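Study this chain:
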Amino acid sequence: MLLSDGTGLSRLARVLAGVALAGVLAGCQVRPLYSTAAGTEGKLASVSISEATSRVEQQVRNDLIFFFGGGAGEAQNPVYHLEMDVSIRTVGVLNDATRDTARAGRVTVSADYNLTKADTGETLASGKRSAVAMVDFPTQEFAKLRAIRDAENRGARELAELIRADVASALARR
């Protein structure tokens, strides 16, 4: 009687669909990338970073040390080692034809990196990342140099965030 008019069948189908949906959602494991439950935060704090050879590379290194340690400084007993090679490139993109100078430009900060286990040297992750910062070139020379340095700093910070995400992702899989 309950199934004869069709309403009971549709109600039964809805209940079964709800139970199936609950079962599927129970199998999901969505969690934050940097969660303490995954242990990624502790793993990031145990990464040492290679010494810098330029001002911009030092800026990227400083930002990574801050990001990895949460402001606590460099790793005391590193389990992992991050080797980096940072390069910069400044290009004018908006030329002033009357003065034959660029009025705006683009600063690209790039890094090749390699994350290894400190004890075995096994490579866990490697890659190349780039960050671009736009810059206006004022007519005063000192202001132009300062604008380029500010763009380099912005690019370095963005690059450090990208590398941090890559390293955290690699360590979360371990």
Remarks:
- The chain has two domains: 1-30, 37-172.
- The helical segments are 7-26, 40-44, 55-69, 141-172.
